[in-house]
Design brief:
Organism: Oncorhynchus kisutch (Coho salmon)
Distance between the termini: 47 Å
Strand content: under 5%
Largest sheet: none
CATH superfamily of the largest domain: ABC transporter type 1, transmembrane domain
Number of domains: 2
Keywords: ATP-binding, Membrane, Nucleotide-binding, Transmembrane, Transmembrane helix, Transport
Number of strands: 0
Number of helices: 18
CATH architecture of the largest domain: Up-down Bundle
Pfam family, one: ABC_membrane
Protein name: ATP binding cassette subfamily C member 5
CATH class of the largest domain: Mainly Alpha
GO molecular function, one term: ABC-type transporter activity
Order of helices and strands: HHHHHHHHHHHHHHHHHH
Length: 431
């Protein structure tokens, strides 16, 4: 049984969490986490020195999730899994090790800059920049291969009219199109896997570092001046916002590339395809305006939510005093701040709902003008244009979600920095 399984079982049964076989964590000063992240880019790895199989996997094994095969086979054979069958947490992904890494990066940032100019966002970026760059590169490959498929399909459809045997045309299509789609699927899986690994690592390191400096400077006077609700808000909602910013924010890089690739496909139908592209060009500024409005409202939402949580905490603590002096109406008016939340949700739902209409409007305008000018419209051309327009909807959909996640994450990071300054000032005053 692995040590982490023992600890998890001890938490469930109420047993002590001490384990004699606790693995020794690597020293962040001796082993850099970024170099460990780059080791996964090796195509094949035969090492077995790590406890977790994902640390021993190569690039292809990581992309197709081959390292999960033993666990899947065990689940298939036994029709059930227990906690004994699950691997222990990787030492490179533990909160203690990554907390040391994050603290060392923060101290390096303080050495390079002054305390007022030190940026916690830069520290977060340096913490997971290798994984994020790999995820962005994989996302760009995914976008390119998603456009390669329709082009090859169009060529094979024209080739099928020239060939006598349809079987030969289908075989050629499989030899050309299937590898392109396989690259699309594997690169998309790699992007998702990198996001899934990087987001909880940064979130756990941040959540471990935040209570560490809070508890280290803990005293009865500081606890009275700094409500526990602030720490709860940091460790819950702000931590989730940082997690979503890391997992979704990288998708913003794929939006401009999708627009450029979509416009480059206009030569398949000639000048008429520019009409459909013009529809997307016309709607892109509208989507960017909606994204900025959503980011503005979401930043307001984060502040309003934190203020509302503090008011709710005051109400729960002083409920008897409020009932005694009949202050219900005053507190109700302070809590009733749903307008900003409703506006943010409305703008976001409107943008996501309008995005699928782009394909219909662009296709109808393109095909109508193409036929009106006397050009021939084949099924292969129509299929390619509709597929390309459908791929171009990735930009407005993902751009909105990425901007929303990044805006909320920036507010959360700024709040981490402000709370840390407040705790230090309270600690200095107490001394």
């Amino acid at each position: 049984m692995f040590p982490d399984a023992i600890e998890a079982a001890g938490q469930v049964e109420g047993l002590p969490l001490t384990s004699p076989a606790t693995p020794t964590l690597p020293n962040p000063d001796e082993e850099k986490g970024q170099s460990h992240s780059l080791q996964i880019m090796n195509p094949f790895r035969i090492t077995h020195k790590h406890q977790h199989p994902v640390d021993n996997s190569g690039l292809f094994s990581f992309m197709i999730l081959h390292w999960l095969t033993p666990l899947a086979l065990r689940a298939h054979k036994t029709s059930s899994l227990s906690i004994d069958n699950v691997w222990g947490l990787s030492c490179h992904k533990s909160s203690e090790y990554n907390c040391h890494r994050l603290e060392s990066l923060w101290h390096d940032e303080l050495k390079q800059k002054r305390k007022e100019e030190a940026s916690l966002s830069c520290v977060f970026w340096r913490f997971c920049q290798t994984s994020m760059l790999v995820a962005i590169f994989s996302l760009l490959i995914t976008m390119v291969t998603s456009f390669v498929g329709p082009e090859n399909t169009l060529q094979i459809c024209f080739l099928s009219f020239l060939l006598i045997h349809l079987t030969l045309a289908v075989l050629i299509r499989m030899l050309i199109v299937v590898p392109a789609r396989a690259k699309h699927w594997t690169s998309a899986t790699l992007t998702s896997a990198m996001h899934t690994r990087s987001s909880p690592v940064l979130s756990s390191a941040n959540m471990t570092m935040t209570p560490s400096w809070s508890v280290s400077m803990c005293s009865p006077i500081i606890l009275r001046q700094c409500p526990s609700l602030q720490l709860i808000n940091i460790c819950s909602s702000d931590g989730q916002q940082v997690y979503e910013a890391v997992s979704v924010g990288c998708l913003l890089a794929g939006g401009p590339l999708v627009g450029i690739l979509g416009l480059s496909y206009a030569y398949f139908l000639g000048p008429t395809a520019l009409v459909g592209s013009a529809v997307f060009i016309f709607f892109y500024p509208t989507m960017m305006l909606a994204s900025h409005l959503t980011a503005y409202f979401r930043k307001k939402c984060v502040v309003v939510t934190a203020r509302r949580l503090r008011l709710m905490n005051e109400i729960l603590v002083c409920i008897k005093l409020i009932k005694m002096y009949c202050w219900e109406n005053a507190f109700t008016q302070n809590i009733h701040s749903e307008g900003i939340l409703e506006r943010a949700g409305y703008v976001q739902s409107l943008t996501v709902g309008v995005a699928p209409i782009f394909v219909v409007i662009s296709s109808v305008c393109t095909f109508t003008l193409h036929v009106a000018l006397g050009y021939d419209l084949t099924a292969a051309q129509a299929f390619t244009v509709v597929t390309v327009f459908n791929s171009m909807t990735f930009a407005p959909k993902v751009t909105l979600l990425a901007v929303q996640a990044l805006s909320e994450g920036s507010v959360a990071v700024n709040r981490f920095r402000v709370e840390k300054r407040q705790m230090r000032s309270l600690y200095k005053n107490w001394e």
